[in-house]
Amino acid sequence: MNFTHRVSIIGGGGNVGAAVAFALVVMQLPVEILLLGASEKSARAQALDIRDAAHFSTAHCRAGTSEEVGCSDIIVITAGARQRPGEPRSNLIDRNYVILDSIIKKIQPIKPTAIILMVTNPVDVLTSLAQKLSGLPKSQVIGSGTFLDSGRLRNYLSRKLNVNSNSIHASMLGEHGDTQFVGWSVASIAGSPLLKHPLMANVDLAEIENAIAHQAYEIIEAKGSTYFGVGYHVAALIKCILTDGHKIYPVCNYNAKYDTYLSVPAILGSDGATPINLNLSDEEEVKLERCAESVNHSLGQVNEFAVHVNEE
Ligand SMILES: NC(=O)c1ccc[n+]([C@@H]2O[C@H](COP(=O)([O-])OP(=O)(O)OC[C@H]3O[C@@H](n4cnc5c(N)ncnc54)[C@H](O)[C@@H]3O)[C@@H](O)[C@H]2O)c1
Ligand SMILES: *[C@@H]1O[C@H](CO)[C@@H](O)[C@H](O)[C@H]1NC(C)=O
Ligand SMILES: *[C@@H]1O[C@H](CO)[C@@H](O)[C@H](O)[C@H]1NC(C)=O
Q1: Which ligand is nearest the CA of 295, by number?
Q2: Does 65 belong to an annotated binding site?
Q3: Does the C-beta of 281 come closer than 6 Å to ligand 2?
Q4: Is the CB of 227 under 6 A from ligand 1?
Q5: Cis peptide before 122 (omega within 30 of 0)
Q6: Phi and psi of 201, rounded to 5°?
Q7: In the listed set 106, 121, 143, which residue is the last one of a domain according to the structure?
Q8: What's the CATH code of the domain at 77?
Q9: Catalytic residue among 176, 214, 246, 308
Q10: Residues near 90 by Cβ (< 8 Å), separated by ≥ 6?
């Protein structure tokens, strides 16, 4: 069978990578999905399990090799160390930087038209690093960013307003982390500002924002990690890229104004992310700048760490 596109998932032996692959299978895309893990065993086991479902689908799934990853149309990265109890987030950044560095080296040469789709946390920081390490054009390196958080927001508003979430335009912006915020000033429903909707009159906006930004914590506390939600969202990004869909999605992409990677809406197609102008309120613009500073701060920590590692 000839597949139109190849999508490789590095970290495919883990929960998020496997959930992305499973969602692609369910979406009936004509793709060949390759899974790679730290150990061949786990990626192969996930691929075999998913293959048991894929015979209903136009997608195919198998374990892949590093050489095959480099010539993929989309390279999804979900590989990463998990945070140990009590461990500071900066440690996670350092560990995942080392993993990312080794992955990018292993999959060279990367096809010049490939898109790298970063999912590993802290996703906005690692997307920036993936671009630097791979040398691909900035438009071709994207992170899932606040796409999942925005889905959670639209889902919440959908229940509140009794309108399908696809008909509500609202996004979480900035960073897939605690500093993210709702872009209320650019949120709309049926062409009108969302905040002018009568049912939005008495809602506590700060409470919504806080609940969405922390929704993952409740899931992680009870079942250890989140994967179905992010899996389907990442698969939707892949579908949009492969079909050159030109949908506007809030993803982590390079922001020229702040000269760093940030999660803001961009047009997504086969050539990657094309930024759009957002006319945020002054207050929101300050919040966005704060997110840019936060991403930059983490990048600075990694740079210090990388220098230290190279000197050892
Ligand atoms: N961006 C988002 O919205 C979002 C949402 C949920 C989870 N995540 C992140 O996704 C990542 C993966 O989460 P998970 O639950 O799947 O974790 P997991 O532990 O189940 O899977 C991670 C996988 O990475 C593999 N790995 C480690 N080093 C590797 C290497 N050098 N090469 C290849 N594979 C390697 C591990 O073997 C493991 O199978 C985490 O960083 C998590 O924080 C992001
Ligand atoms: C941006 O929004 C402000 C109000 O917040 C408005 O005055 C201005 O015209 C808008 N600019 C554009 C380019 O839409
Ligand atoms: C982020 O870092 C880049 C590169 O060092 C710099 O040009 C930019 O001004 C910084 N942005 C913010 C908001 O600090």
Answers
A1: 3
A2: no
A3: yes
A4: yes
A5: yes
A6: -60, -45
A7: 143
A8: 3.40.50.720
A9: 176
A10: 298, 301
- Is 12 known to sit in a ligand binding site? yes
pLDDT (0 to 100) of residue 302: 85
Contacts of 206 (CB under 8 A, 6+ apart): none
Alpha-carbon gap, residue 215 to 177, rounded angstroms? 11
Pocket flag, ligand 3, residue 293 (CB < 6 Å): yes
Shared domain for 258 and 120, answered yes or no, is no
Question: Of 261 and 304, which is predicted with more confidence?
Answer: 261
197 catalytic? Reply is no
Residues 173 and 200 in one domain: yes
Would you say the CB of residue 38 lies under 6 angstroms from ligand 1?
yes
Residue 292 has pLDDT above 90, yes or no: yes
C-alpha Rg value of the chain to the nearest Å: 19
> pLDDT tens digits, residue range 254-269?
999 999 999 999 999 9
The amino acid at 10: I
| Gap between the Cα atoms of 268 and 241, Å rounded | 6
Cβ contact 150:109 at 8 Å: no
The ligand 2 atom nearest the CA atom of 281? 5
Residue 302 annotated in ligand binding: no
State in Å, rounded, how far the first CA of the chain is from the last one: 49
Cα of 165 vs centre of ligand 1, distance in Å, is 28
Over 90: is that where the pLDDT of 3 sits? no
Report if residue 216 sits inside a domain. Answer: yes
- Domain with 194, as residue range(s), is 147-299
| pTM summary value | 0.95
pLDDT band at 224 (very low <50, low <70, confident <90, very high): confident
Task: Please tell me if the CB atom of residue 279 comes closer than 6 angstroms to any atom of ligand 2.
Answer: yes
- On whether both 190 and 275 belong to a single domain, the answer is yes
Q: What is the pLDDT of residues 27-70, one digit of tens each?
A: 999 999 999 999 889 999 999 999 999 999 999 999 999 999 99
Interval between CA 185 and ligand 2 midpoint (Å): 10
User: Which of 92, 119, 142, 212 maximizes ligand 1 atoms within 8 Å of its Cβ, making it the mutation to test the pocket?
Assistant: 119
